[in-house]
Amino acid sequence: MYTPASDRYEKMKYLRCGKSGILLPRISLGLWHNFGSVDRFENMVEMVHTAFDAGITHFDLANNYGPVYGSAEENFGRILERDMRPFRDEMIISTKAGYDMWPGPYGDHGSRKYLIASLDQSLKRMGLDYVDIFYHHRPDPETPLEETMEALSDIVRSGKALYAGISNYNSEDTRKAADILRANHTPLLLNQVNYNMLDRWTEEDGLQDTCEEVGAGMICFSPLAQGVLTDRYLKGIPEDSRAKRNFFLHESSLTPELLDKVSRLNDIAAGRGQTLAEMSLAWILRRDRVTSVLIGASRPEQILTNVKFLSNLEFTDDELAEIDSILA
Ligand code: NDP
What we know:
Blueprint: H1 8-11, E1 14-16, E2 23-25, E3 27-30, H2 41-53, E4 58-60, H3 71-84, E5 92-97, H4 112-126, E6 131-136, H5 145-158, E7 161-167, H6 171-183, E8 188-194, H7 201-205, H8 207-214, E9 217-221, H9 242-245, H10 256-271, H11 276-285, E10 292-295, H12 300-306, H13 317-327
Helix pairs in contact: 2-12, 4-5, 5-6, 6-8, 10-13
The structure holds NADPH dihydro-nicotinamide-adenine-dinucleotide phosphate (NDP).
């Protein structure tokens, strides 16, 4: 029987998501990796408990997380059934559709047909009546944006999702999507995008300003660059690491030049009394422009280490300049 930590809400900080009524934890947990049918169920249970005990209320999924596709949602449904169901109303659970999910022309991209069918499947796999956030996972230039956004609005109106989100949308498309959703009286809750010290496209794109202007939040995925922005690879490539085990992070991308930068960032983090993982998360949240960082983890200890960054989000101008010069 699981009893959550009674001080969980004192440990976490929460920030309003855009102009909505929702407060998101500054750090959220994603189930892209390590929650599939190939992974150990007890470890998943421990990670969800550890996160919830730390005040992490937001759990992020997608239809195709696994492997195999759908298995992360099935496993999360098993965890809910096992001992988390009593806390359903304390959680923000999200899922998405937009990438390859099932064969044929209706299991991918952005049609109304795909989105509505996919969410029905996701709800069954998780054993839920509704998700809190349903996202279109990536822009689909071949489907009219009106069709995709109307599908999101209708899903919200049907009660199968409480809020609509978009993911991987740039500034221009975010503005268009937000306009359509607002006209449909189902405002855009947030945009989920890649942002970390090594990938700063959202700054050049002006996305942070756009999200603020349209009243939406921004949640950043892969804030640790899949583990690169930690000390994970500073002494070689461990056998149990993502770079060894998964094709989403290639060993070949861990070049000596990149690892030299990471090592110098690690020195700055040490000077701040933080691990590099903590500093990487703090760097993203140092201003309140990003609502939450969406981390992944392969073991509960990583979650426990990572939440510590919340105690030091301040950077001196010298530290920021040094970080920029390393990344330049
Ligand atoms: P991260 O950048 O946080 O990478 C997580 C990985 O970093 C872990 O699995 C672990 O790798 C390593 N790690 C984490 N903490 C530590 C630590 N303290 N010390 C050392 N290594 C650490 O995020 P993800 O790339 O996993 O993405 C997070 C979430 O974002 C996903 O689960 C998903 O919900 C979302 N996402 C959304 C996308 C979208 O298109 N909307 C795309 C990608 C992700 P290891 O296995 O080596 O231990």
